[in-house]
């Protein structure tokens, strides 16, 4: 479909094309962000709308306000600068503020500095020659020159006024005044990747903070000014709004003709990436653009209007800054207030949560306020966690629970899904399903039946979660069994409410299929099923004790229990018993059981709610078992892990047992949001994304499996560790049972708590299933990240071992 | 928080402000769109990027292509034109095409016309004087002048070539070259509302279609060119992208510095409103902007680059058009292909759906392909339905099923929710809930406990749908009852899997609480619960036959059944039995029952899944009953009707019965997407929106109820109709039971089918519950729309009556 008319651009631009496409799914790790003072990102709807004027105005309002006598520090960071050294936004602030200070009645005592860290060779040479400084070849490393130049200035103010400080920094600079991705490509071969920018910015944000905190109260305001518009590419080609800073923002809008549209669209691009915008500000062009903007924003975000800039480009803007002073004061106050409200909210959240929430599977008495995790956002596999220790900050933790086994998207897919969720909500909202068809539901059904259901399933039945998918599957299986075994001779002639025969499921001990009563009845008695939890539970099954497979002491072990075998009525199956403690059931055993059931016309249900969609390294575990079911249930990763949706797939024979002349013969089960458009759209996007080698680099295309994510050596080492009883590592899952006895074992055990607490400090968010712990990643997670997780775990196991030894010896 | 610096704009702009805010939640009805030929909307990332050049290029490629000899018609519509008559985009096409035609080797025989329909007084006077035409005061009506001017031109082409036609129309024009909302305010007092624009555009789109279809095959391409950028305000102040046209679009991007960002943001604003964009095209400025754009779009949308325009503004562009010819040919082919693919897909959808879907509550044998509704999109309360009768079109139907009783948003809220869904998916994706807190979940819990739970509830337990909310409520109630009645003396000392006592619920006959086994057990035997549907169902309750209330023959009737009363163990309650046939249970009866239960320490559950959140005109039916429960369940409208989420609220006393030292005492029930961020964000937005008189004009603030939506006279008339047995009209619900006997009555009945088929033709989408039919609107629906629905229903009842009479007499 692509028809590109190639015009007059030079050949080296082709390289950008290739590079951009190659890196299109790469996403750098987000960075830790200090929260002990406000930090804002300045965005703009387009180039040249005055971001730097806003930064300068804010610095003036913050540092030169006569009312405040406190020591203050304003930090201005410009991560990406093109047109350097002719254009230098950090230098603009550095040179403007003294003049502004001198115009005050009571000028402050000011220390000002301006630094430039790295630049391209061209920019470095221009800069050095303009300053009469020598070029030092040893400072030219991997295509960037380590300028590390700093200039300083001091303004003596009133005797009794305190010292305030302006710190300006340009992080990376290029000479040509074009978009950073072009300048970087032309001048430095594209070596400045997103990780480099984020790492350097992180360092600058943390720079000197320790000493600031020790020094005591100094009010700080920090500004990070972006380049170009919100979705302008940075030096790597990634859009700036796609970089995982996620600082609160100020949007500099457009007051010109057409500027309403540009401002609203830029605002929406930021929102679509999870950014909070606390104010919109723009230069007046006499078109009253603030009116429609305020209407659009419904007064929830303030809109501020700056006076028109003088037409004369030689004007020193001093009068304009004077005239704008009130606006900048207002803007600064909005920013400071929004910051303090945010901190207050984050601080209060654990307490409020403990008071209002009723968490599932949680004994509230065992969760003190300090154990509650405040999650400010997530980006791909990482949580951004609010932490309030020595100082406040947002730290990163790898979500090794894969958000309760559902999580799949990397950061790129997450943003794509966000756009799809917006589109689908706008286009379809929710549409009732029966007798209707709409694109997301149809596409999702097609992908399910061509994918996990390929070769056996012919119908897709949608519901909301794994439990309901199982309840539906049971109803299908009951009918099919009754149909095949003449339990129901005439569907309409007799009273169908009469009990004909007692139906039971054949299932595996230790399995778990959900918490609604029907799903519970299909599992063996356990702590989840007692009278205390659900007095109606009776356990309507024959429950087999299956052989399991695991690694211990670097070797794979097959554990054979005493087999129970009796008359079977129906069968439920799952290759990994997840909630039951991550046991891997012997696939051969399962295959034989499935075949035997099908020989007796007993419908077989695969519960793939947990195991489906690459959780175990394949799209469907039918591929691992080498056999297919009559009915199968899907959920969790089905939508990529952003929104609930479940599907029960069935063969045509199962479907046929519900077809007839009466509505009463139909499957009278449904949920109002059946096949809801958002869920189906998320599923359609994720199913395609996970199996496409272009978007999921873990896919081995010819074999339709994921490459190994868990390093075998490390897994063997862990399995040989003295604290470890067994390891199961398959696909995205690595589960470890710790050696434990007595009350340390089992679901109620708190044995692993201290170990996991330490791992949180390492940036790994895990939760135990009693004495079983696990690491879970997404289908797109990189093996490198997985190895880091295993290493961290191994190190903490060593420590854990020593502590346990000490406890035993006491 | 709003700090607006008011600068130098004149006072009359204030009026715009007020008007915009006043109309901020008004949304016009979407229009029927013909689909028998392709129609595209041309959007632009900013003003002056060349939308009209693209339109002209397309018209030339479509009409002047030598390859095709068929008769062709190109329709160009410009709904909104400012700067008129100096600027007239439709006239640009009208005057350019002849010159372009003459440059061809084989010019076509062309008929061209250009019309202007309405203009402001200023624009009319300028236009008339430029043409030496008289001003006719009688044509000046409600601030707009009915110009209705048409000019024509003919180009003689080759003898044997067929006649092609270019039709250009400007719909509304103003003189000043500013944004339409300003021009309209200044020149015509803002009288051109959205409805007027949409209605006129609809007329132009349908204009002459009948005769075209009769005349036979003439290839037609229609273009609707917007004004300014995608989010530029139209004459009413509404953003152009917010008007419910929802035609597929072409985006004219920006090739300049900063243009990547503007183009991406504009694209995202369109997606956020459910628009499909089939191509991006822009003028080359030598900056290779197509490379990052293609990367962003992942090759799913083609990007085309036009050669740079000549700098000289007097240039007649003939050479530029020649040079661009290939690009326009490609663009035209993309548009024609996308159209035919779309039509093919829409045509195939009913068949595909019938083959792949397994619809809930549906006997597939009774749903022929032609009965399947193809829903192309929804906008507020309306479905856009693909229809393929005499000719193909997208028609509008009011969704009177409120999409299975969940639907709430008007079109404005739907777009707000779309943006919130995008933001929340980007910021949080999904975050596991236990022991965690994140903003959407906390805000949602706060709003629930301050709203429907106010005065009694202290905890919010989240799940995915009504069924699971009920299963959770039952588990809570069992525990509380056991706790209060010493059924469990020691939670940890004894084997908790042992059955202590048989617990039953006290519930009402005819009630329905969902389709999972636990929820089913709490309802009386019915067609849903027989062996055929769920062999495990036993009906674990005492089921009372309650008194009900309804209107018949213009009078309210209280229907008293024989009351059953026996020892009670627990109680479930609901004010309207929805799925059971829309029976309204006597509130006094319910209040007394609740009080009696609570006197006996029997926990009371309110099932508000259907009735909550304004469905019955109040936020919680506790207000109607005058008593509060111990536990209550919410779902459906909780999220405004876009995404599944449920909540079970409970008192502190209920919560306390789960608190202890062991995890095993906690409520061990949960779903992986518990309190998922998207659902909570949708709920938080909707809860606030529905109860705020600023956003929901139906709210009577001081009484916290909705105004009457159903006209009493009409309801009385319907209740007196000879086909009607009873009517229940309350809040957003109007249910009607038709007189029916024998197999015409009951859930399996198809009695109402013919009636509802007729109503679909009237644009009302309804589904029956046997011989009960209902109209359901949203909490923000206007009483005017509701009255129209009642009128249409009444008319069809008259007809139905006659047919039934005839059948009986046969």
TrEMBL record, chains A, B:
Entry's Gene Ontology BP terms: biotin biosynthetic process
The protein, known as: Uncharacterized protein
Gene Ontology terms, MF aspect: adenosylmethionine-8-amino-7-oxononanoate transaminase activity; dethiobiotin synthase activity; pyridoxal phosphate binding
Keyword Protein transport carried by entry: no
Stretches that traverse the bilayer: none
Places the protein is found: Mitochondrion
Pfam families xrefs: Aminotran_3
Gene3D superfamilies membership: Aspartate Aminotransferase, domain 1, P-loop containing nucleotide triphosphate hydrolases, Type I PLP-dependent aspartate aminotransferase-like (Major domain)
Entries under CDD domains matching the protein: DTBS (cd03109)
């Amino acid at each position: 479909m692509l028809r590109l008319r190639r015009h007059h651009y030079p050949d080296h631009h082709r390289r950008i094309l290739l590079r951009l496409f190659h890196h299109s799914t790469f996403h750098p790790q987000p960075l830790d962000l200090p929260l002990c003072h406000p930090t804002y990102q300045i965005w703009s709807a387009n180039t040249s709308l005055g971001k730097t004027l806003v930064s300068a105005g804010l610095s003036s309002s913050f540092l030169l306000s006569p009312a405040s006598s406190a020591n203050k520090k304003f930090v201005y960071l410009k991560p990406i600068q093109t047109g350097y050294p002719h254009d230098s936004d950090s230098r603009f602030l550095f040179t403007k503020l003294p003049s502004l200070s001198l115009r005050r009645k009571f000028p402050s005592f000011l220390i000002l500095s301006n630094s430039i860290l790295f630049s391209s060779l061209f920019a470095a040479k221009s800069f050095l020659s303009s300053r009469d400084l020598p070029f030092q070849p040893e400072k030219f490393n991997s295509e960037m020159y380590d300028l590390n130049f700093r200039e300083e200035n001091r303004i003596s103010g009133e005797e009794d006024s305190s010292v305030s400080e302006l710190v300006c920094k340009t992080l990376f600079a290029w000479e040509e005044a074009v978009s950073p991705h072009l300048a970087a490509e032309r001048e430095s071969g594209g070596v400045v990747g997103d990780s480099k920018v984020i790492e350097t910015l992180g360092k600058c944000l943390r720079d000197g903070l320790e000493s600031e905190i020790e020094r005591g109260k100094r009010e700080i305001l920090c500004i990070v000014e972006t380049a170009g518009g919100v979705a302008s590419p940075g030096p790597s080609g990634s859009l700036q709004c796609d970089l995982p800073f996620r600082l609160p923002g100020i949007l500099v809008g457009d007051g010109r003709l057409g500027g309403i549209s540009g401002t609203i669209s830029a605002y929406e691009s930021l929102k679509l990436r999870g950014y909070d915008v606390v104010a919109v500000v723009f230069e007046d062009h006499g078109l009253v653009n603030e009116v429609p903007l305020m209407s659009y924003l419904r007064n929830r975000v303030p809109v501020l209007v700056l006076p028109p800039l003088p037409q004369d480009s030689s004007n020193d803007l001093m009068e304009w800054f004077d005239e704008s002073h009130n606006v900048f004061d207002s803007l600064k106050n909005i920013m400071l207030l929004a910051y303090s409200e945010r901190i207050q909210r984050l601080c209060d959240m654990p307490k409020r949560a403990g008071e209002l929430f009723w968490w599932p599977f949680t004994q509230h008495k065992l969760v003190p306020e300090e154990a509650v995790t405040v999650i400010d956002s997530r980006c791909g596999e990482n949580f951004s966690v609010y932490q309030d220790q020595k100082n406040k900050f947002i730290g990163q933790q790898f979500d090794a629970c894969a958000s309760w086994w559902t999580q799949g998207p990397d950061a790129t897919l997450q943003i794509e899904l966000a756009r799809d969720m917006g589109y689908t909500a706008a286009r379809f909202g929710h549409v009732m399903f029966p007798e209707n068809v709409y694109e997301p539901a149809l596409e999702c059904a097609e992908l399910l039946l061509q994918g996990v259901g390929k070769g056996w399933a012919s119908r897709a039945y949608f519901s909301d979660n794994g439990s309901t998918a199982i309840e539906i599957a049971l109803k299908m299986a009951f009918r099919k069994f009754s149909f095949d075994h003449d339990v129901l001779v005439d569907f309409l002639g007799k009273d169908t409410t009469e009990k004909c025969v007692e139906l039971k499921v054949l299932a595996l001990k230790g399995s778990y299929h959900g918490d609604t009563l029907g799903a519970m009845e299909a599992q063996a008695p356990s702590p989840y099923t007692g009278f205390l939890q659900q007095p109606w539970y009776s356990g309507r099954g024959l429950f087999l004790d299956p052989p399991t497979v695991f690694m211990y002491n670097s070797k794979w072990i097959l554990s054979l229990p005493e087999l129970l075998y009796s008359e079977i009525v129906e069968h439920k199956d799952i290759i990994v018993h997840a909630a039951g403690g991550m046991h891997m059931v012997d696939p051969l055993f399962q295959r034989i059981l499935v075949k035997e059931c099908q020989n007796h016309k007993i419908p077989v249900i695969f519960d793939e709610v947990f195991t489906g969609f690459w959780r175990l390294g394949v799209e469907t575990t039918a591929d691992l078992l080498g056999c297919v079911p009559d009915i199968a249930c899907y959920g969790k990763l089905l939508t990529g892990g952003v929104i609930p949706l479940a599907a029960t797939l069935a063969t045509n024979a199962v479907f046929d047992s519900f077809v007839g002349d009466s509505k009463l013969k139909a499957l009278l089960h449904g949920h109002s949001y059946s096949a809801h458009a958002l869920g189906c759209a998320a599923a359609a996007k994720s199913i395609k994304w996970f199996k496409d080698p272009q978007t999921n680099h873990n896919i081995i295309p010819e074999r339709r499996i994921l490459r190994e994510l868990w390093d075998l050596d490390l897994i063997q080492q862990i399995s040989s560790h003295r604290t470890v009883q067994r390891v199961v590592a398959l696909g995205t899952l690595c589960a470890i049972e710790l050696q434990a006895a007595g009350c340390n074992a089992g679901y109620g055990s708190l044995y692993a708590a201290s170990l996991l607490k330490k791992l949180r400090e390492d940036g790994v968010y895990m939760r135990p299933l009693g004495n079983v712990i696990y690491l879970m990643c997404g289908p797109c997670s990189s093996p490198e990240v997985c190895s880091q997780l295993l290493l961290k775990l191994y190190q903490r196991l060593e420590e854990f071992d020593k502590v346990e030894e000490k406890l035993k010896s006491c």
